[in-house]
Amino acid sequence: MVSRMKTILSTLIVALSMTAHAASSLAEIPLKDINGKDTSLKAYQGKAILIVNVASKCGYTSQYKSLESTFRKYKDQGLVVLGFPCNQFGGQEPGTNEEIKSFCSANYDVTFPLFDKLDVKGPAQHPLYSALAGKDSQFPGEVKWNFGKFLVGRDGKLIKRWDSKASPDGEEITKAIEAALAAK
Questions:
Q1: Is 172 exposed, middle or buried (0-12, 13-18, 19+ CB in 10 A)?
Q2: pTM of the model
Q3: Which of 32, 94, 131, 140 counts the most CB atoms within 10 A of its CB?
Q4: Crossing angle between the packed helical segments 63-74 and 97-108, to the nearest 10 degrees
Q5: How close are the terminal C-alpha atoms of the chain, in Å?
Q6: Residue ranges in the chain modelled with pLDDT below 70
Q7: CATH no. for 2-182
C-alpha cells in the first residue's frame, strides 16, 4: 500500500512539474516586439492570450477589425491579442515592421500588441510556433495560412487552435475566450 502511494505521488509530482515547465517555457521564449525590443510572453502572464499570425495583403486581413474589437471587448477582463506578422504565405506581409505598424494603425486602429515578423513553419520556424504547433503541442500540425489562431489560458497552457476561416468574434472563439477568462 505504501509503495503504491509512493508511486502515485511520484507520478503526480512528475506530471505537475511537466505542466509547470510547459507553461513557463512558453512564457520564456524570446520574442521581439514590432519596435525590435526584446520581450517575451512573461509580460502577459495571468492573462488569456489569443496569438495570431497576421498579414497585411491577405484575403483575411479584414480580421484585424474583429481582432481589435475582440481585444477591446475583453481586455479589461484579462484578454490580450498578440499579432505576429508572417510573410510565408504568398508573400502577403512584405512590409517592414514600421510599414506593418502604420498599416494596422491607419486601416484598423489596431491597439493590441504586434511583434517582429517571424516564420510560423518550416526550417526557420520560430520557437513560439514550434511550441504552439510542433510535434509536442497539444494541437500539432503546420500552420496552413495567415490568421491562424491559438488561445492560451491564464495558466499559460494552450487551450484551442483555429484556422484562418474562424472569425475572432465568432461564436466558437468567443465562447472559448469567455471560458478562458472565467478560469482563474
A1: exposed
A2: 0.86
A3: 131
A4: 80
A5: 35
A6: 1-24
A7: 3.40.30.10
Is residue 157 within 8 Å of residue 22, measured between CB atoms? yes
Sign of CA dihedral 90, 63, 130, 33: positive
Exactly one of 31, 34, 41, 58 is catalytic; name it. Answer: 58
DSSP of 92-105: ---S-HHHHHHHHH
Average pLDDT, the chain: 89
The string of pLDDT tens digits covering residues 67-89 is 999 999 999 999 999 999 999 99
Is 86 a catalytic site residue?
no
Count the helix, strand and coil residues of the chain and give each as a percent rounded to the nearest 5. 40, 15, 40
Residue 22 φ/ψ, nearest 5 degrees: -60, -45
Cell of 96: 517592414
Query: How far is residue 180's CA from residue 159's CA, in Å, rounded to a whole number?
Result: 8
